[in-house]
Amino acid sequence: MKALLITALISFLCSIVFRLMHWPGVALLILLALMCVLTFSLINSFVKKSVWKISIFGGWVLAAWTIYIVFRSFYWYCGPRIFGINSMFLFNSILTIIYLITQSKQLSKTVLTLSVLGLLLHFTPSYKICYFFDLNEVINKEFNKVNFSSWDKYSWFLYIRGEKEEALKANQKAIDAYTYNDTGVSNYRLRVDDEILTQLENHKRGIINDTWEDSYIRMF
């Protein structure tokens, strides 16, 4: 039981490192972490002895927040909005409130920690998540010179946030990165074709005219 949670934690931490370094295998590590947590929650429902004070209900709260964190960090669809809040987050919040009320005498630090992480991630703008993982200068300074897809993604999240000027700057960096990547000078090189440059230019016009609707370029 503990091994499942430890494996999930290690896989999750490794996935962060892999994502920061732009290494392949992030999806597999995330899937492994998710499967470990779900397996733990299922087994925990039938085992009397609890692990780290995680009750049966607490195990499913843990699983719910794990799923949300994965979806949120990868910008996946988290359900329709209810009162302006995405339904997955709303559902998890209700679960957590019930957990806090009904099991106040045996709260698990593991469940609480993941709940807080989910809350923090929810209120962190997507463009900040994108910049941290894909464009931070500490790790990605050189790769940023050619990483037009991440600059385009960053531009999109700034645009939908209403930061048009910053979105335009990011879009220009995407175009510059594409141009630099196309020269073949850099040690890093991404797939290029004329359609990508056209898309980037269309996105620039979309920002200026408030007509950008086709989201960002997806390389994989």
Automatic annotation (TrEMBL):
Source organism superkingdom: Bacteria
Regions crossing the membrane: 29-47, 54-76, 82-101
Keywords: Membrane, Transmembrane, Transmembrane helix
UniProt name for this protein: Uncharacterized protein
Organism: Lishizhenia tianjinensis
